[in-house]
Design brief:
Layout lengths: L1 H67 L3 H14 L2 H18 L1 H12 L6 H14 L6 H8 L10 H14 L3 H13 L5 H16 L7
Amino acid sequence: MSDIFREIDEEVRRDKAAAVWKKYGNVFIAIAVLVVAGVAGWQVWQQQERKKAEAVGAKFEAALRASRDGDASAAEATLTELAANAPAGYRQLSRFRLAAEVGKRDAAAGATAFDALAGDASLDPYYRDLARLRSGLLRVDLVPYAELRKELEPLATPTGLWRHSAREFLGISALKHNLFEDAGRWFDAIVADPQTPQVLRQRVELYLTLVRGGPVTIKN
């Protein structure tokens, strides 16, 4: 008896399945076609995006190669294009690299380009501070110590990510303007910081020798 009831139950299920397929078969087929088409479309889109990224990467490498080869105009032209049209990651890299390229031939113009990056609220604060630092480094030989201090001192805090470079160039600027007390203070801060890189410590020892020597008087 149990076998008979099982056969009847299976027959009923088959009849129900046939009825559902008869009623909704076209819908199931349409859904299946859409899924297949969607997967295929997604794969095509991924392939296209990968090709675009490879093309942009090749252009960026070409700009770096032109810079290394001394062709500044070609490097700047390519970087300008990428800074305007590349995907977000390469666009940001290109803007930073372009500012650096401009700074090689015109420190003031390069600093202004980095200022624009430092003021771009769409960038992560880490990169904005980096741009602020790069701007300050380009201005070491262009502006008085007081002006540079206003720009770089906020980066020279004990927890600042860019504090080592900021302190070094603040010290150099103070030294250039014969402000030996300020220079010594920045160099001492570098020495006292346990996370200061060893190479920088060695440079600072040379700076401190100049600080201890004081101003040089030339007798006629």
